Amino acid sequence: MSIDKCHIVDLPKIADSRGNLTFIEGQRHVPFDIRRVYYLYDVPGGAERGGHAHKQLSQLIVAMAGSFDIVINDGIKEKRIHLNRSYKGLYICPMIWRELDNFSSGAVCMVLASNLYDESDYYREYSTFLEAIQGKT
Ligand code: TYD
């Protein structure tokens, strides 16, 4: 998979003087049924998250509050993306190595995922991920 398949999704934003509203629908704003939601919060300054790739899982990552960076890598190309709006999501397809860093104070990172948690879906070693990309495993 190429990082070119990962892209920013512009989510609907219902602007209102009482506060804005954004919604996300499976198979409409993301190309999968949403089977799991998880979020990172209270991330200490300087901490790094991620550091893995998924074999089958697709995800949409949204900065619900604050900001952070996501570095996506397909084994050939790498790109750093800054997320800081709760109406923009980063779609990440399977087989993309990702690292999250540069978390602002109070940042909340919400992840919508296409499947339930399954440790066997992870590549947690970059070398193993690279071998898989190169068809060695
Ligand atoms: P991990 O996916 O490594 O976190 P991140 O990518 O955000 O840095 O998960 C950290 C721990 O949490 C690990 O022990 C697995 C567990 N976990 C679950 O039990 N369920 C989940 O849905 C997720 C995402 C993680």
Automatic annotation (TrEMBL):
CDD domains: cupin_QdtA-like
Domain of life: Bacteria
Protein's name according to its UniProt entry: WxcM-like domain-containing protein
Sugar 3,4-ketoisomerase QdtA cupin domain mapped to chain residues: 5-133
Alphabetized SUPFAM superfamilies for the sequence: RmlC-like cupins
Alphabetical list of Gene3D superfamilies matching this protein: Jelly Rolls (2.60.120.10)
